């Protein structure tokens, strides 16, 4: 194709901007209403223009889609709704030509109930050993083997016609694998090789702290230590094995590790284990200066001793979109408090999200941007009869589920379905076209313009460590290299420290040149 491939450096993941692609909702190339690889390939120039270093694809494998693809039936095949393996290979290569790397998503805790292993297990084959099958309790085995609850609500066990029960920490269509079995380990190392051979640069590990189970499958008693299935020590040996595979290819990992205990969290990032893990403490942190500062300080302190870079995440495909969350009375995120009809001020939320974008992009480490975040998309209300996320039904209809952050993207304001493609699999709310990328591209005040500028200017912070500057209450101020970031969360406008030039602001300064509430600025010191 004439153009030399841009040189890519080995340490890219330490400071990368990584864009999360939820393929089903990104862009629909064939007009069937479901996003696909053709859609992504057609939009690679948009992603290059945005300036991202890598793409993380949510699972794109063959799947009955009972949990948006996190129910994998075959890791070596692309779901036909998305395309083919040959297309995935092309996409990986084309992105690479633009200097963009690919990260795939591996789901070790479970497979789909349509996976050949589970189908064989159901017929009573030796594959039963690859899962957790148990007789029930009670006189006739009518009670689940233990008291574990599914993350999506309801019991974590389903009974089969033959009387046995099987374990699923998520939906019944997602049976948990038995990680004490060597074939499970071998298979996952082979899957990693399969994708590294195809040129992927990294792997996101789904529910990374859950796969190992106490073999006795004891009841869960609050405070039980060690926990029967969260963060068990034997997992570290599994990830050391994975790391050895990744090192053969120069591949990197990002773990989905939800653990409040920072010391336990950091264990996953030891030099012979995972390279990085998502920073959920920052993602769930309310819009509050002191709490944000604590979250940032704790993050840096827990990563420093192991030499692992931090990651900064504001949202993803599982949580309330940023502009909506920041526009509510409770600006933190908690699965337990999600509710229908929460009052939201989107103007306020958007202002804060703009400031938060500059904050997170100024911090040392890697930053994740979830598709549509760069367009400032709000969480959408999905009509009840169109909600697909199993979290909704399994909560007895109480939890709105996660579809509100998974609505197909608006690309072209004047086109049908805002240019997404065919009639979208999830309905786009009224007014969605006003967020269209083509409109924002030409608007200097848009969220898209802010993200593009910020990603372009971000190298001003270099790879320098962070130094806090003295600042009034409610103001965050720090320098890295010769750049400075100031975020004002307080009512009084904040004076700007001495600087040579203003690099970027998330909103207008006041007439005296001071920084208003919920606004951030980057300065050259
Ligand atoms: C992770 C994914 C989520 C999925 C769950 C089960 O938390 O991010 O979307 O439902 O794992 O695989």
UniProtKB/TrEMBL annotation:
Keyword Signal: no
TM stretches of this protein: none
Organism placement in taxonomy: Bacteria, Bacillati, Actinomycetota, Actinomycetes, Kitasatosporales
CDD domains assigned to the protein according to its UniProt record, in alphabetical order: AmyAc_OligoGlu_TS
Domain Glycosyl hydrolase family 13 catalytic stretches: 20-406
Organism encoding this protein: Streptomyces edwardsiae
Xref: InterPro entries: GH (IPR017853), GH13_cat_dom (IPR006047), O16G_dom_2 (IPR045857)
Family listed: Belongs to the glycosyl hydrolase 13 family.
Matching Pfam families: Alpha-amylase
Name this protein carries in UniProt: Glycoside hydrolase family 13 protein
Gene Ontology MF terms in the entry: hydrolase activity
């Amino acid at each position: 194709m004439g153009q030399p491939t841009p040189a890519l450096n080995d340490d890219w993941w330490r400071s990368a901007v990584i864009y999360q692609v939820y393929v089903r909702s990104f862009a629909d190339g064939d007009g069937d209403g479901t996003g696909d690889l053709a859609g992504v390939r057609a939009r690679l120039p948009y992603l290059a223009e945005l300036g991202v270093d890598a793409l993380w694809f949510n699972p794109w494998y063959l799947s009955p889609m009972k949990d948006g693809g996190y129910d994998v039936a075959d890791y070596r095949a692309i779901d036909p709704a998305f395309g083919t393996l040959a297309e995935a290979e092309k996409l990986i290569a084309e992105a690479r030509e633009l200097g963009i790397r690919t990260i795939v998503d591996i789901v070790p805790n479970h497979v789909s109930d349509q996976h050949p292993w589970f189908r064989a297990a159901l017929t009573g084959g030796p594959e039963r050993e690859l899962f957790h099958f148990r007789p029930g309790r009670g006189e006739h085995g009518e009670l689940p083997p233990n008291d574990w609850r599914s993350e999506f609500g309801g019991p974590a066990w389903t009974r089969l016609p033959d009387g046995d029960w099987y374990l699923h920490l998520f939906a019944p269509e997602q049976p948990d694998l038995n990680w004490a079995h060597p074939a499970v380990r071998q298979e996952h190392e082979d899957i990693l090789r399969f994708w590294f051979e195809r040129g992927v640069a990294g792997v996101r590990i789904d529910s990374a702290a859950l796969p190992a189970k106490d073999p006795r499958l004891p009841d869960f008693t609050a405070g039980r230590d060690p926990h029967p299935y969260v963060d068990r020590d034997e997992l570290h040996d599994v990830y050391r094995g994975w790391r050895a595979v990744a090192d053969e290819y120069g591949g990197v990992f990002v773990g989905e590790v939800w653990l409040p205990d920072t010391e336990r969290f950091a264990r996953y990032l030891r030099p012979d284990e995972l390279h990085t893990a998502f920073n959920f403490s920052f993602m769930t942190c309310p819009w509050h200066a002191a709490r944000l500062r604590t979250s940032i300080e704790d993050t840096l302190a827990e990563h420093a001793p192991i030499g692992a870079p931090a990651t900064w995440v504001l949202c993803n495909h599982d949580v309330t979109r940023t502009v909506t969350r920041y526009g509510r009375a409770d600006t933190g995120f908690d699965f337990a408090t999600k509710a229908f009809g929460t009052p939201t001020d989107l103007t306020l939320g958007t202002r804060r999200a703009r400031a938060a974008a500059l904050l997170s992009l100024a911090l040392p480490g890697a930053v994740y941007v979830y598709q549509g975040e760069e367009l400032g998309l709000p969480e959408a209300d999905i009509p009840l009869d169109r909600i697909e996320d199993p979290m909704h039904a399994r909560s007895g209809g109480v939890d709105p589920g996660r579809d509100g952050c998974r609505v197909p993207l608006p690309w072209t304001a004047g086109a049908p379905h805002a240019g997404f493609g065919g009639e979208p699999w999830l309905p786009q709310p009224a007014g969605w076209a006003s967020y269209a990328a083509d409109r924002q591209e030409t608007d200097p005040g848009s969220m898209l313009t802010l993200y593009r500028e910020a990603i372009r200017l971000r190298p001003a912070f270099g790879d320098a460590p962070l130094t806090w500057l003295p600042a009034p209450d409610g103001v965050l101020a720090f320098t890295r290299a010769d750049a400075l970031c100031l975020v004002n969360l307080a009512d009084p406008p904040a004076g700007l420290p001495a600087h040579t030039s203003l690099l970027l602001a998330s909103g207008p300064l006041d007439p005296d040149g001071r920084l208003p509430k919920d606004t951030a600025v980057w300065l050259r010191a």
